[in-house]
Each structure stands twice: as C-alpha cells, then as structure tokens.
Design a protein that fits this description.
Blueprint lengths: L1 E7 L7 H11 L6 E7 L5 H10 L2 E6 L4 H7 L2 E2 L1 H6 L4 E5 L2 E5 L2 H8 L8 E5 L3 H12 L3 E5 L3 H11 L2 E2 L16 E4 L17 H6 L11 E4 L8 H8 L3 E3 L1 H17 L5 H9 L2
Parallel strand pairs: 1-2, 1-3, 4-6, 7-8, 7-10, 8-9, 10-11, 11-12
Antiparallel strand pairs: 3-5, 5-6
Helix pairs in contact: 1-10, 1-11, 5-6, 5-10, 10-11
Bound molecules: 2'-monophosphoadenosine-5'-diphosphate.
C-alpha cells in the first residue's frame, strides 16, 4: 500500500482526504493507495514525519501550521519551495525527504487565462500572499502587493522584487481599477458563511475595497473558502468579474501534489465533486 496523508493542526475539517480519495478511486488506484488526515502538534511534527516514513508512507501534504517546518526538515527542495520559504507537499523515499510547493502552480492553474503581462494585486503579506506573489511574478505578471501592516508588504515586495501599492488617501478605498487580477491572500473572510459580518460590508472594508470597485474585466481570486461565497467573491460576481474561489485553488494544488506522488494525470472533476459535496 502506498500511503499518503495530510498533516496539520487542526486537521479534522480538511477536505484533502475526501478530494484525494475520490481521485484515487476515479483512477482505480484505491487498492494500492490511501490518503488520511493526521493531526500533529508543532512539537511533534518532525518526529511524526519520521514515524510516517518508518510506517511506509510515501508522501504527505502539509498545512497550517507546518509549512515552514516541512521545508526545514527536507533533504531536498524544489526551487519554488525554496523561494517561497514553505512546502505543502513532501515526498518520502529511501534517499530522504523532498519538499515541493504546489500552492504556487495551483494558483496559476486555477486562473482562467495566462497571467503573463497582466497587472496583479495581491492582498496580504503572510505565507499565502508570498506564494501567490511569487507564482504570479514567475508567470510573468506585473505584481503589486498591499497589506494592512505596510511594513510586512514592503518586506515581501523587496524580497520578491515586486512593488507595493501606493497608499490611498485617508478613508478612500484602494485604487484597483487598473488591475486585471486581484488575489485575496489574507485571512479576511474566513469567518463568513456563519456570521453576519460579511453582509454588513465589514470584510470588504477590512480589505480596503469598495463593493463598487470591481469591473467585468477583472479576475478575482479569493483563497478563503467556506460553505458560502465570501463577501469578496459575492461583490466581484455582482459586478460581472470572473471569480475563482478558494476551493478551485485547493483542487489545483491538490492536483499538482497528486501528480508528483502518483505520476498520473489528476482527475479534476472527481476532485471538485468530492469537495463540493463535503
Ligand atoms: P498565512 O501565512 O496563512 O497567509 P498570516 O501570516 O497569518 O497567514 O497572514 C494573514 C494575513 O491576513 C496578513 O496579511 C494579515 O495582515 P497583517 O500583516 O496586517 O496582520 C491579514 N489580515 C488578517 N486579518 C486582517 C484584517 N482584519 N484586516 C486586514 N488584514 C488582515
């Protein structure tokens, strides 16, 4: 049996086991491969990975809060994992642990068109923003970042050689009209779906956006996902923008991991159907 897992804390709500199990089943691989969720605390992460290897696991997705630690423990890492400073995909072999980052190619694959030459605004300055900015810049987009804490945006921009958005006048929303692509890589919107917060317009305000700022020629990606649309995707859809939700990005990063481990073409429709029915 080729064993796979997703490791995180908390992990019980992860959609990855359902998504990967559906993919294995769709390809008739479920007898030779398995994929489960494993909860490990930061203190136990490194020794836990060692135990999985001893038990014959061949790979693992890694999620919050272990993506930096995953890169740190690897013997070998892809250029993307090194540049982003984080790994979400580990592959185990007798030679050691290999770290990849499929969040970056996953984002690019989820876009409706090639971002080369397009103007992209990335909101946020954490790990998700870093992976997004690196991926888009590498794909040839002209990347600008913005973050509530400007210093963090400036640090990220300097490292990745992208620009920081000029601050708007006090109280004014961000000037987004000139962007072809907007990526929300902050955690704003995470609580939506079960709160009245979004409906009151507070999430858009936290992001520095105005509901009437979107246009039908924009692509808006929200890495946040949940049961309901986020306020950002709802406002963008209402304006006729092309919306890519966080579930599609989740499917695409999972698909890239799946390809690395199994060498098979990932069955995207089966993966989408599995997470949308969870
Ligand atoms: P991750 O590594 O998963 O991307 P993170 O490092 O915690 O997560 O980053 C969360 C991002 O969401 C940050 O850019 C954060 O902005 P700050 O750097 O100013 O903290 C942003 N964020 C979280 N809550 C926010 C809010 N209420 N308004 C605006 N930005 C927010």
């Amino acid at each position: 049996m080729n064993r796979l897992a997703v490791i995180g804390q908390p992990i019980s709500h992860s959609l990855s086991p359902a998504m990967h199990t559906a993919a294995l089943r769709a390809l008739g691989l479920e007898r030779e491969w398995s994929y489960v969720a494993i909860e490990l605390s930061p203190e136990r992460f490194s020794s836990g990975v060692g135990e999985l290897r001893e038990r014959g696991y061949v790979g693992a997705n890694v999620t919050v809060p272990h993506k930096l630690a995953a890169l740190a423990l690897a013997d070998d890492a892809s250029a993307s994992a090194r540049a982003i400073g984080a790994s979400n995909t580990l592959t185990f072999s007798p030679a050691g642990v290999r770290a990849d980052n499929t969040d970056a190619p996953g984002l690019i694959a989820a876009l409706p068109h090639d971002p080369s030459g397009r103007r992209a605004l990335v909101l946020g300055a954490g790990g998700a923003a870093r992976a997004s900015a690196w991926a888009l810049a590498g794909a040839g987009a002209e990347v600008v970042v913005h973050n509530r804490t400007r210093r963090r945006a400036a640090e990220l921009a300097a490292e990745l050689e992208v620009r920081v958005l000029d601050p708007p006048e006090a109280g004014a929303p961000l000037a987004i009209a000139d962007f072809d692509l907007l990526v929300n890589a902050t955690s704003v919107g995470l609580a939506i779906g079960n709160s009245a917060r979004g409906r009151a317009g507070l999430d858009l305000k936290d992001l520095g956006l105005a509901a009437d700022g979107f246009s039908d020629r924009m692509v808006v990606v929200d890495l946040v996902y949940g049961a309901a649309p986020t306020e950002l995707t709802a406002a963008a859809s209402a304006a006729g923008a092309t919306v890519v939700d966080g579930l599609e990005v989740l499917v695409r990063q999972g698909a890239e991991s799946f390809r690395i481990w199994t060498g098979s073409e990932p069955p995207l429709e089966a993966m989408r159907a599995a997470i949308r029915s969870e």
